User: Fold these one by one.
Assistant:
Number 1:
Amino acid sequence: MAFDDTGEVAELPDCPELLAAVDAAFGDWPHERVDREQRPFVSIRRTGALYAITTASGDELTLNAVGTANRLVVEVLGASIAANPERLCFHCASVRIGGRLVLFPSEARAGKSTLAAYLASQGHEIFGDDALALAPGDREGVALGLAPRLRRPLPPTLGGAARDYIERAGRIDDRRYSYLDLPGGRLAKRGEQAPLGALVLLDRRDDGPVEFFSAERPAMLRALIAQNFARAAPASTLIDRLHAVVERLPRYRLCYSDLEEAAAVLASAFASWPPRIAVAEKPETLGDGSDRSITSSFSYADIPPNLAFARSTDVQLRTVDGEMFLADDSECAIYHLNAVGVGIWNLLDQPTSRDEAASILAEAFPHVERAVIRDDVAAVYAALLDAGFIAPLQR
């Protein structure tokens, strides 16, 4: 099967169940069965009642039909991004309200897909519930045509009318996820463009009213970096482009517990542009300024205490709105540094071991327990090593 905008083909078995799931997931993204002598970048085979999919990276997963279709979407989207390295693509929901796109670049389980589906039930147009490409110039969003996918079960607070609308739009599901086939005008056609309007981070809570807060530029920039799919452009250039998007658009954080109330507030707030939104008196930022990106395949034990590390070449330290980022243009890697990370990076101007760094920082911050500093230093070293920003030296 060939997929538009990728130059790749995938090998699929002739199973009606799987093909129906693929058709439902890809929505308006053109794909067709082909007889072509070309090595598939993804292979799928039937194994009992399930399917084994070998991904482009060589991993093999065994999933049901809907899960396999979902994984194929991920692989095809990755191939499309690789084929268009100059194009930004965000992991976000996007809905056209009042003629412009409101983007929700939020983390998983923030409710962005369900919120987008509910907005569609109110007559607004989804450009994507999980991914949005940007047109050249980064001022307009481009619909990819992928079908919205909702997690099951639906939120218990979802009202009857909205629930009925989503249930009627459901095309295929496996009791864990459901792909929607929205009526005309509710899902933008593939390639359709609309101007970017605003960035809204979602904060779903157990209770409390719907409130808008200002989202500061550094917090929003970190969010866009974390939710950006593009990895082929030079990292330093990517930071500049993302910063330009953040600088240009109004930025908000929406706290909510009731989805329908949140949708009504959004529809009213962005009915005309520029939006007139009453934000809470005290602007809120995401988190406490700590680095959410410290994740690594290395553990504390993998970092020898007395082994010195040094900075890798081609790594730049960039300051944007007072925030520190490492950018490696050779690998298109970006890493946000918190206060501990900045201190460690400064120390790594000379070869420095994990324990040396912990000892120096313990003297600089005597009020912080040494065990806490040791763990923080080890986490930063592990993340920097995993990203290729530092390399060990034998002394």
Number 2:
Amino acid sequence: MIYFILFYEFFKVGIFSFGGGLAMLPLMQDVVFRQNWLTEQQFLDIIAISQVTPGPIAINTATFVGHQVAGIPGALVATFSSALPSFIVIIIVASFFYKIKNNPKKEYFFRGVKPVTLALISFAGIIVAKPTFFVNNYSQSLKATLIFIIVFLGTKYITKINPIIILLSTSLLGIFIF
């Protein structure tokens, strides 16, 4: 029964998400908390792990959540069901995209989807920011804020830094200063 629930819930996340992996996180958070699969801290830890492992964050998060809930079979079900809707939609869109290429309603659709996508990605940022910056330990909040500012300004003004280098160096920095 748990595999059916995992499939159903992650398929819904995949089918109703526009804007990529970060936009899927609020929907995943809702599922995880509604089903009482993980605590807030466990979910945040999974997001952090998903960000530093290769692959799309939504697929990685689904895999880790599925594994926590039902082991390796749960990971496979959650991964497959969260990716399946995108695959189906791409096949359908590809089959008739050239027919609607110049249709203005297609543009209206994307104009409507973009603000929703931005809102979902922003909400994902809030999900991660809340326990990162607003903790009871002032020292930890200050350290996290400084790392954020350094990385933000560094990536804004020094654009040739590889994101992998940033993730690895800040992960190591976190080990030593926290």
Number 3:
Amino acid sequence: MLMEHGSCLFGAGRVGEEEPMMGRLVWFGMVVLVLLGVFCHEVLAQETLTPQGKRFLKEAASINVMEMQMGRLARDRAENPEVKEFGERLELDHGTAYDDLQRIAAANNVKLPRQVERKHNVLMARLTRLSGREFDRNFVYAMMRSHTKSVARFKKANRRLDDDDLRAWSVRYLPVFEEHLSYAKGLAQKLGSH
């Protein structure tokens, strides 16, 4: 028999106190499960990106932040309706690309930049001082240069990245950035840029 001299085998108390003891055991089990869940979540949320992947993620995010802000600038300052439209498209496409990068970053516990890098601030400041046709031509030329570099980076990434999510992102958005480059070149010819 589990009971001896009016006390429970577990030493918790008297006859009739088995239910509170069982409640304590259930509560203890639930606490253990919650703690185990938190531990497993922390282990799974640890970074799984390679150092190269982490660098690419941050660089791609920085490029997209800059392109979004440049698009906004063109939308607000351009004289030519096609340049304004191009700015709107840049803001939308690079915003979507940034959001997708944000999901990859969150899954890998990486914080992405939300501001334009210092090196891009110089270009933004220069373009902000321009207006009309001069703004349009300089903006389009800057977008040609920027997208030429971005396309080259992402082509290289498609060959070298070991991180599947980042490679998939690069493969998905490379055609979008190539399209931006092609559009910028066409606008440059129309505007007589540089």
